[in-house]
Design brief:
Radius of gyration: 17 Å
Largest sheet: 6 strands, mixed
Structural class: alpha/beta
Oligomer: single chain
Length: about 250
């Protein structure tokens, strides 16, 4: 029997689905320690139809207070680098592997990455980026599915299928780590300069559509979760800030 073609969701349907995933993530208790110690879930922020997506490691203290990703010094560097290639934060979508801050900014645990990755897969599927920049080791290892570190991979793009979306994956140094090593800021700047060319390339051939338009958030999607490297990437110390905007503001340009 011939299979029935699946009608792709409309732009409006994708946005509504992304909002639903966000509200589900807000109440997530898959990681009891993170759920008990977080101030808020940091789902992600930016353009829900972005061609360019950035995936970092996990929220820090400032992000945990405001509910927004990359709002400290690393975020300022990210904004500067985007401006240098003619883009703004409003043009891209920014999120993290983990949606909750690990206590004391410790490394994410493998079980936490596994528990949280379905949210990231849904974000990729519903936003439909052409290019995903992984910032640092954790995001790079997760989305590549193997343990090669960022030092060897940065600035080298490749086509990868993330969940149900084929994209150009482009590993970069994490801005926070680059700020601790000034020479790496220039390396990061040089790697950023290639992003416009990557965005101009044709979209990679996409996998055959599945029967369902989206993957249920509680579906068990087996994926290899790499062990983190022993040395953590440094997190910048950030000044305390006042309470951030209402939770809905996390959704950026919806």
């Amino acid at each position: 029997m011939a299979s029935i073609a699946t009608v792709p969701p409309t732009k409006e349907e994708r946005r509504e689905a992304l909002k639903a995933v966000y509200h589900q993530a807000k109440g997530c208790t898959n990681c009891p320690q993170l759920a008990a110690t977080r101030t808020t879930v940091v789902f992600g922020n930016g353009n829900a139809d972005a061609d360019l997506m950035f995936v970092g490691e996990a929220p820090g203290a400032n992000e945990d207070r405001q509910g927004l990703p990359f709002v400290g010094q690393a975020g300022k560097l990210l904004d500067t680098l985007l401006g240098e290639i003619g883009l703004a934060r409003a043009d891209v979508f920014v999120c993290n592997v983990l949606k909750c801050r690990p206590p004391g900014n410790r490394d994410p645990h493998p079980a936490e990455i596994e528990a949280c990755q379905s949210y990231l897969l849904r974000q990729v599927e519903l936003i439909e980026p052409r290019v995903i920049c992984t910032l640092g080791n954790f995001a790079t290892k997760l989305l590549r599915g193997e343990p090669t570190g960022i030092t060897r991979l940065h600035g080298r793009d490749e086509v990868r299928t993330i969940g149900r979306r084929a994209v150009r994956l482009y590993p970069l140094f994490h801005p926070a780590a680059a700020l601790y090593t000034p020479a790496n800021v220039e390396v990061l700047r040089a790697d950023f300069a290639r992003i416009p060319d990557l965005l101009a390339m044709e979209l990679p051939p996409q996998p055959e559509p599945a029967e369902e338009a989206v993957v249920p958030i509680d579906e068990d999607v087996p994926r290899a979760v790499p062990e983190p490297e022993p040395a953590a990437e440094p997190e910048l110390e950030r000044e305390p800030v006042a309470a951030g905007p209402p939770a809905e503001a996390q959704l950026g340009l919806f």
